[in-house]
Amino acid sequence: MSSRATIADVARLAGVHPGTVSRALNRKTESQVNPETVGRVRSAAKQLGYTPNSIARGLRTSSSMTVGVIIPDLTNPIFPPIVRGIDSHLAPLGYSAVVVNTDGSDQAERLLFESLVQRQVDGFIFATGHSGHSIAGEAYERGIRAVMVNRDSRGVPFPAAVGDDAQGIRESLHHLWNLGHRRIVHLAGPPGFSTSQIRAESFVSECAVLGIQGEVVQTAAYSVEAGQATMDLILERPGPRPSAVVAGNDLLALGVYHSLRTHGLRCPDDVSVVGFNDMPFAGDFQPPMTTVRAPHFELGAEAARLLVNQIEHSILTALRVVLPVELIVRASTGPVA
Amino acid sequence: MSSRATIADVARLAGVHPGTVSRALNRKTESQVNPETVGRVRSAAKQLGYTPNSIARGLRTSSSMTVGVIIPDLTNPIFPPIVRGIDSHLAPLGYSAVVVNTDGSDQAERLLFESLVQRQVDGFIFATGHSGHSIAGEAYERGIRAVMVNRDSRGVPFPAAVGDDAQGIRESLHHLWNLGHRRIVHLAGPPGFSTSQIRAESFVSECAVLGIQGEVVQTAAYSVEAGQATMDLILERPGPRPSAVVAGNDLLALGVYHSLRTHGLRCPDDVSVVGFNDMPFAGDFQPPMTTVRAPHFELGAEAARLLVNQIEHSILTALRVVLPVELIVRASTGPVA
DNA sequence: ATGAAAGCGCTAACAA
DNA sequence: TTGTTAGCGCTTTCAT
User: pTM for the whole thing?
Assistant: First the structure.
């Protein structure tokens, strides 16, 4: 395992002092050393196959060039694009990301957070924000640098990169309104998440604007199962059924598909459905899903940028970067029957 | 940022020598120190909120408790489960995974590999194996510990955890045979990957056994686009068309869906399709996809186990762990017309 | 422009 | 059982 040649070996071969080698090999200090010496050091390094030991450097500089990325679950399809977006910004700067999954457990998150602190990560990107998110608050008090991505934690003053949830819901509603829908239910995500809250709030206010008879029904989780269970309830209760549902995200929308199917109802003929996120392959579902595309990759990249600004320049660029979203109309929405 | 109290602070507070603190706080050496002292050290540590600096420890022990995971692309839906499987085995042991994406570029892979070596990772898990995989060969020669997951690199003697590709193809073919299909084409993955090769080979040999008129057509990539383009070619050439296609993976199968649709053909009425992997949401496609489920999570966990055995005990447990797969019959396959 | 020397925080071999 | 000492490989201040 590992790089064998050390800076001392290079120094010996180049006939200079180790300190000089260090200076010659670092961009920032290279100018302090004679160009000719730099050349000698470089070729000695190449000859020995020298590569710096970043652990040793990290100990000395107390920076690990590593950031911790805390997400609920990598197998939720919105996270891979976010993670890749993060990485796309970090990698060229020499940072690595260590991503860990909490599976929604605060306790797991706390453990993972502490273990990453021990590893001297230079900062955190949290995709786990929610209203009682004490870990973020704690991080802030300890002076640890961090940013939120996708969701934010109410009351925690870290910068955040989020999608324009309100706009997405507004566009969904306009689309549905144009198709003639006037009785619509919103399957809201579980409480405590900024995404759930903002989407539900803008659903309510936009329904009022458009004169739509809107109803908000809470789900227990952002999952297919929760979407199906909740929709089952809606379909099995007495009274007229909605002609359309605006789901809190694509997983919930998929659950709605399932529920509709088991009730012998067809989408969009009987009920139109709009999702949120435009997760990968949403266009391959049955029917292809009309949904709001959130720019997950860019959200990740933006979050990384915000974090690096904090780490390297102690700059808190913007408290909240809101990226635009776009309604993708496919086949799960149609004119009201 | 970061843990402020050092081992020296704890030593001072507990009235002992730093060396003793180190021993008291490490499981393996704890027995060498007086239980009463251990208690004193522990409470001093707690009082100061001491957490060990793992960079310093890493420098001293020349181990980073980190492993590098090299994959093509996290947004390919088979990788998140693999990564989570890896993590499920690693995390309890105190290891972290750093995952990087090559996007299929050998050059990118080499760069990422070197940067992880610099970071003193204790080993690698490669999900990027292919026939000319020089990086793995190089790693082996440098004495770097590694394992392959999902695919292996022909000729590189690292252990590998893979699915039983041959079994999967055999089951697909039996299923199709039972439905009456006798003219079947296999959309093979691109050359150079063990998965492509093994699947194609067992397709050919099993067709011979069953008396099926089988044909192998190569694709350019494991992607939806490549699947669609290749199927377009097949449908547009003269002569009878196959009644079924066995796709090299689910992405290719999805491409086949698209091609069928643009040609006004229906699945499974006109052409049956079988995928491979059972990627997330394969059951929600139109039609729900019949496919071979590969145990990706377990593959990841197994790979991690193999790697840790090498790292901690220099044991090369098994050269090749082959995990069973299972045909999941859904609605993309039906009786021949 | 370069050398000398100290030290980041920890562990481990040796001594007592 | 505990203290002493040295040093992992690097950067950086201070001299020169």
Answer: 0.96
